[in-house]
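FAQ: What does the model actually see?

It sees only this:
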Amino acid sequence: MLSLIRHGITGANKEKRFAGRSDEPLHPDGITQIRELAAKLVDAGIGHIVTGPLTRTRQTGEIIADILGLGIESDDAFNEIFLPHWDGLTKNEIRQRFGAEYPTWLADPAGFRVAGCETIADVQARAVRAMERLFASAATPVLVVSHLIVARSLVLHYQGRAIADFRSVEIANGALTTFQRSPDGSTLVALKA
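And it is asked to produce this:
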């Protein structure tokens, strides 16, 4: 079984900023949030933790690893979407500076494209490849720590849903999602609070 956690809350999350690949740490509330979550995972049988490369995912993984007595590794496949010109901006700032980009992002997530940047389909493809490697190689349950866009795209893929449904997937900071592979090859997805 693979489990996925969206990193703990950050200052950008609280301020409704697009953090993107900015390397911000967890907010003190996020540290508390992840410590509380880790205490609930003590008996979950997790044998390994894989995080995205940014500080907020690594810090989330390190808090959990410390409490569970595990090591962690980083995998770029679980990094946030690459939209560097949005990094650190509020929704209003993105609208003001980049015109129709943000309304398109909201209205047509499957069709959203900006030259030189990733699409949600790009994020989904790299994250699914990494998840499939973990399904194939993990001898014990693995915990992945990543970002909202990665988590949403993985849920959609494993539920057999289109990227057009991207906005319908709600995943809070610190939320746990499990991916259980069935003998028939299908994957059961469970979103937990």
